[in-house]
Structure formats: C-alpha cells, structure tokens
Write a structure and sequence with these properties.
CATH architecture: Orthogonal Bundle
Radius of gyration: 19 Å
Strand content: under 5%
Helix content: over 70%
Number of strands: 0
Shape: globular
CATH class: Mainly Alpha
Order of helices and strands: HHHHHHHHHHHHHHH
CATH topology: Farnesyl Diphosphate Synthase
Oligomer: single chain
Number of domains: 1
Structural class: mainly alpha
Number of helices: 15
C-alpha cells in the first residue's frame, strides 16, 4: 500500500496531473467569476484533454529529460509500456464526455487537444527562433479555456460582457506566462542544449526573477480593474485571486533558495484559484 501511494504521489507530481487539474480549475473559476451556473462536466472534460497532452509530452521527451529530470523520467519508465494504453483510454473517456455536446464544443476541444499534441512536435521548436514563444503559446491556451464553459453550455458570449471575458482571459494568460517562465528555470540546462530561447536561457536567473516580479504585479491588475470599474459583471469572489500576488512572491523565494518543492507549488497555482473563489463564494 505504501508503494502504491508513493507511486501515486510521483505520478501526480511528475506527469502533469496537477497541471491538468489546474487547467480544469480555470474552467471552474471562469464560471464562478462570470456568475455562470456551475457545471462539472466541462471541468472534468478539460482535465482529460490536458492530461492526454501532458502524458504525450512526457512520453515524447523521456530521453532528453533524463539529463535534467532524472526522477521524472525514471518514474515514467516504470510503466512506460502502459502509457500509450492510458492515453487511448483517457481519449475514449473524453469522447464519451463530448458525445452529447454541441458542435462548437467538439471543435474547440479537438483543436485544443490537437494543438497540445503538436506542441512538442512543432510549436516548442519555434522557441529556437522566437523568444519565449512556448511560454506565450501555453499561456494563450490557458487563456482560451475561459471560453470553454460558454461553448459547453451554448451560452452566447455577448450575454455576459465581452470586456469582462477579455479581462479574465488577460488575467489567466498573464498568470500562465508567469508560471511557465518560472517552471522553465529548472529546465535551463536542457533548454540551452536544445537551443530554446526561454527567458532564463537568454537572460539568466537574476533578470528572469526581475521580469517575474514585474509580471507578477501586472498580472493581478485586471482583477482590481474588474472590481473597480466592472463590479456588476464579476463575482466578488475574484477579489481573493489577488492573493496570488503574495503566493508567487513566496514561491519565487523558495526557487531562489533552490527548493524543488517551489516548482511543485508553482504548478499548483490554478488549483489554488479554485479554492480561493470557492472560499469567496461562502464569504
């Protein structure tokens, strides 16, 4: 039993489950923030979409990951032959979730999945030519997940407010960018070998943390803008999301001190969003 729980812990930490749950949390937070009726179906579907993507990414990069992510690669190798089966199984479950949805939801889900699977094959390599492209790419995908509950329910985007949706997308995108740039710090050696122009590779750790400090501040400004100028369009619970500014400062400090669990806490950010807005609903 102890070995099982150790395996489960490593699986969640190393193979993208926390990030996949975090992506699903974005969908939940969007529904709460924009005062929509909460449905768990798009939240669960979002998890399956992103977990398929993360498993495939880990599977494809296992050889190069050995240099800088030995523990993660060794864990994946312990059940490597089962990973393709799990990807197919998760895909089958996702299809079951999407069977009774509308056409826009099916198309959107398929596009996110396909572009996610293409990321390690094509889009990641564009970072060799375009500075921090992969960070903007991933952050942009996270931002688009704000639209997912609207598509799932068939609700007209204009029934809420286009400015409100844009503000929320900007918040998610900017926080996603902070997370991705931060997580890249641990991969600086492997990224440098691959010729990827990540922020930490090009500018080094000191300037990276200066950039993250600035982005951390700017990323929470959409929340204050929403609460001050568009208070009727948002749930008051989004005020709790501003606490992520202090959360990031704490995580930055851990990573500067070379504490690996700082990276784990960084990947948990979106999950904490769901907790914070849920507390905000009760408050």
């Amino acid at each position: 039993m102890k070995k099982f729980f150790q395996f489960l812990f490593k699986e969640f930490v190393y193979n993208g489950h926390l990030q996949a749950i975090g992506s699903a949390s974005i969908v939940y937070v969007s529904m709460v923030a924009l005062k929509m009726e909460t449905s768990w179906m798009p939240v669960i579907a979002a998890y399956f979409i992103f977990q398929i993507i993360y498993w495939y990414d880990r599977l494809r990069g296992i050889k190069t990951d050995y240099a800088t992510n030995f523990e993660r690669s060794r864990h994946l190798e312990s059940y490597l032959e089962r990973v393709p089966f799990l990807i197919v199984l998760w895909l089958f479950i996702l299809i079951l979730f999407l069977v009774d949805t509308n056409l826009p939801t099916k198309i959107f889900s398929s596009v996110i999945l396909i572009f996610g699977l293409l990321y390690p094959i094509y889009f990641k390599n564009l970072t060799r030519k375009i500075f921090i492209f992969k960070n903007i790419y991933v952050g942009g995908v996270f931002g688009l997940m704000v639209l997912y509950p609207f598509l799932w329910t068939g609700q007209n985007l204009f029934s809420v407010s286009v400015p409100a949706i844009i503000i929320l997308i900007l918040f998610v995108l900017s926080r996603g960018l902070v997370m991705q740039v931060l997580l890249d710090i641990k991969d600086v050696n492997s990224d440098a070998k691959e010729g990827l122009k990540t922020f930490s590779v090009v500018h080094g750790p000191s300037k990276t943390f200066n950039f993250l400090g600035m982005m951390n501040f700017l990323s929470v400004t959409p929340i204050f803008f929403a609460l001050i100028f568009l208070p009727d369009l948002f749930s008051r619970s989004i005020a709790f999301l501003s606490l992520m500014f202090f959360y990031s400062l704490f995580v930055f400090n851990l990573i500067k001190r070379e504490k690996f669990y700082g990276y784990i806490l960084a990947s948990l950010e979106f999950i904490f969003w769901a907790i914070l807005v849920s507390v905000g609903k009760i408050w």
